Amino acid sequence: MQFEHNHHSVIQALDNIVSAVQLSFNQCQSDVYWLSVDFRMLIAATGVKHTEAHKAAVYIVDSLVEQLKPNESLLISSFYFSFPHSKAFSPYKSEVQTGVFGAMLLAQYPQHRVQQPFYSFLVFGHAYPSLTQNYIAKSTGPDSIFEWVINNNTQLICVGHHYVKSLSSIHHAEHCADVDYRYVKTFSGSLLLQNSKEQHIETQFYVRDLDTCDFSSLTHTGDRAFREAAVIESQLLSTLKRPLLIHSINLLCTHEMMLQDLNSGNNRYVDYFGPMKQEHEVITGKVADKLYTKELNALINTQSC
């Protein structure tokens, strides 16, 4: 692949990121990897021009897929949350609402998207095409896409952002624990597949009770517990134009920890806030950004000592 601007330095930077992600793959005990990338941070770190961002996304994924073993799979989130309003989902055309990384890859690999109206993934390697061939009605809970993700011992790899911002498996744990601030809601609409008629579908999503819950997520205590249990690893990439932090976290182990805590009624690891409950320890997106920057700077300072 040829980049028109700063080809050699861009390729070297992208190769450094690919090598670091591959190292995370090799160091974990999993065959399924979910890669999440903050592409704004990646562009700043590599010098890729915005006009060539699509090339960079494809280069990273193609490089990683080439190195997958026969039994390994790679997932990229391509979530879509407008189904309740649009009442239609097309794996090929429904926009990706979880960042430009998945959106750019969908344009290149539309046939690799899972048929799930909310939590769809792009799938590469061993799980393709089997995971993309059948409609999956449930987003979380029994017989859901996230049950597949958890049961297959998936390793989440986050590049350039705090892992909590991609930890949607929290809601699967909440569903399994039957928390009192969320409930299952069924939505109806159409599934639009290529070269076929519309199919009527029903799908389930574990929605918030709006009178009770504004937001739910991991807590600071949960983050500390994950780190103490060594189910999360941090890796500093300092050879780029701007340093990046990579988080690698085992979703099966963290699911078991969150579920046990939720079932005990302690809500130490996962909690919510709402009209009658203050934010307290819940890690929001803004808090996660601050935690990422704090950890990144701490690792830079440690390395320079």
From TrEMBL:
InterPro entries: Amioglycoside_AcTrfase, Antibiotic_NAT-like. Signal peptide: none annotated. GO terms for molecular function: aminoglycoside 3-N-acetyltransferase activity. Its EC number is 2.3.1.-. It is an enzyme of class 2 (transferase). GO terms for biological process: response to antibiotic. The keyword Transcription does not apply. Pfam families: Antibiotic_NAT (PF02522). It comes from the Bacteria. Keywords: Acyltransferase, Antibiotic resistance, Transferase. The keyword Transferase applies. It catalyses: a 2-deoxystreptamine antibiotic + acetyl-CoA = an N(3)-acetyl-2-deoxystreptamine antibiotic + CoA + H(+). Belongs to the antibiotic N-acetyltransferase family. This is Aminoglycoside N(3)-acetyltransferase.
